[in-house]
Design goal:
globular; two-stranded antiparallel sheet; TIM Barrel; alpha/beta; 43% helix; 10 strands
Length: 331
């Protein structure tokens, strides 16, 4: 075990968080992560209604008695989901950890904290992390440019972003983007983080609720096999490179309006692909961590491996590099 401020905060054995992934963060994966001693995250908006979310939380509780959380991503929209109702479903279901992400989280942070819920807020910039801490977030998940999904527009990789955040905020930090093994966990802790967040790596596990073809692709792909799309619309997203992502990039290069791209990047289209196994049906989210994925273990095997690797690195290989000053001079 590795004990950190984050494990103390949320009551888990290991400083590892499963990212709140659309279409993937369901009871099967979340409960497996929780049972392995890490923090699983149900993705609230994967569920079509607040009532469906409440049922998914109840289903997860039937599969684990360990702590787990819910991700609630708030995005600006003309016709937004009923966020307050989703929030109420989370609170009334007795969930004690929530990851918020996105647009103006203050009302959500206030309501969650008033009901004893710990709030992790996901950010892609230090300035946003500072703001979220000021709003009352109990922890910050800082998302580097390597990440899957939305890396923001600043393009700051984790090697810089994590310690830059650690220099300015006081609450526990979850390092996100590019993590897949014990080397990454050890590095994140050295950089000032208190845990790591993994999305892409958890997709390539036996319990992930996606078609085996996508898991096989994550093993086969290397770190170059992603595309940044939607940058011209200031909504950058990192996805696995396929025929659709390439078509989107070509349309953006031609200066096409989003209306001519929208049908290619629809979430429903991506979900259909995850179910059917057709890799080129829609866009699907994956990060640079693909280059570190070489197998499809169970969640329990993966978590145990990562912790064992990190402990070995910190107590073995790295500690062996330290030489007392006097001994070094004598040599």
């Amino acid at each position: 075990m590795l004990k950190t401020r984050f494990t103390d905060l949320v009551g888990v054995d290991h400083p590892i968080v499963q990212g709140g992934m659309q279409w993937v963060g369901t009871a099967e994966l979340v409960s497996a992560v929780a049972n392995a001693g890490a923090l699983g995250m149900i993705t609230a908006l994967t569920q079509p209604t607040p009532e469906a979310l409440a049922r998914e939380i109840a289903r997860t509780k039937e599969m684990t008695d360990k702590p787990f959380g819910v991700n609630l991503t708030i995005l600006p929209s003309i016709n937004p989901p009923p966020y307050a109702e989703y929030r109420r479903a989370i609170i009334e279901s007795g969930v004690k950890v929530v990851e918020t992400a996105g647009y103006k989280p203050q009302e959500h942070i206030d309501d969650f904290k008033a009901h004893g819920v710990k709030v992790i807020h996901k950010c892609t910039a230090v300035r946003h992390a500072v703001s979220a801490e000021r709003m009352g977030a109990d922890a910050i998940s800082i998302d580097g440019f390597e990440c899957a999904g939305h890396p923001g527009e600043d393009d700051i990789p984790g090697l810089i972003l994590i310690p830059a955040a650690a220099d300015q905020i006081n609450v526990p930090i979850v390092a996100s983007g590019g993590f897949a093994d014990g080397r990454g966990l050890a590095a994140a802790l050295a950089l000032g983080a208190d845990a790591i967040n993994m999305g892409t790596r958890f997709c390539a596990t036996q319990e992930a609720p996606i078609h085996p073809a996508f898991k096989a692709a994550l093993v086969e792909n290397d770190e170059r096999a992603t595309d940044i799309i939607l940058r011209s619309y200031r909504n950058s997203a990192r996805v696995a490179r396929n025929a659709i992502s390439q078509a989107v990039r070509e349309l953006e290069a031609q200066g096409k309006p989003f209306a001519e791209v929208a049908h290619l990047v629809k979430g429903a289209r991506g979900r259909e692909g995850l179910i059917s196994g057709e890799l080129d049906h829609g866009v699907w989210t994956a990060g640079m961590a693909q280059g570190l994925i070489h197998d499809i273990p169970s969640v329990a095997e993966l978590v145990d491996r990562i912790i064992s690797e990190a402990v070995e690195i910190m107590t073995g290989r790295l500690s062996g590099l330290v030489v007392a000053r006097g001994a070094a001079q004598a040599a």
